[in-house]
Amino acid sequence: MDQQDQQQLDAIARLHAERMELERDGYLLTSPGRTEQKALAVVALHIFLWGWFGTALAGAMLGTLMFPLIGTVLGFLSAGIGGIVPCILTSLLYAISRGRISPKLTMAWGGAMTGVGCFAQLMPWPILLGFGAVAGVFGATGARLSTRRSLKRYQFEEGLGMRSYHQFSILDLMLLTVWLALFLTALQIVTRIAMAPWSTTLACLAISLACALAIETVAQLSGRRQSRRST
């Protein structure tokens, strides 16, 4: 065996070792599914579970800062229970849009809606709008970080977990209409249960969407800076 063959074998062994290390760490990129339906279902389920968990942890962290120990438990429970519906709706938004909307952004919105919703009944006092925004930032951050962690092993391709905006069709419009109907129905039910005026509900939605977009923008800018430094 000459030196060139030995170098090729060493390179193959090194690549195999790196692949095994990535697989042990859970960062080996794989496709979420062989068909679009399976890929969307797998990713939607993952982001719901992880986004919901991250939202609950964010609630516990915020509660700890406000009231240690007792606030931790109350924050975790309130965010965990209150985050079920928002996280389901936002994970469905990703699946129904067929990956056109970022799963990290959708779950950040779910976390923000949960955080702001915890203060929904207190919103008539303008001074508490700030607390709702802070809770929304915590929820959006927790949901986005946990969702980002859950998606590290997936490699998205066109038609398998993501789609381009220019391929929008009538089917996509029908699916988004169905999601909008579900969203408005859930919104009406929650508004009636909380006995809150629609002005308060719309204010909560606006604040939560602003929190999610702000966290997403900061994350995108941070990622661009890191990529520039690496190059």
UniProtKB/TrEMBL annotation:
The chain crosses the membrane at residues 39-63, 69-93, 105-122, 128-147, 168-190, 196-219. Keywords: Membrane, Transmembrane, Transmembrane helix. This is Uncharacterized protein.
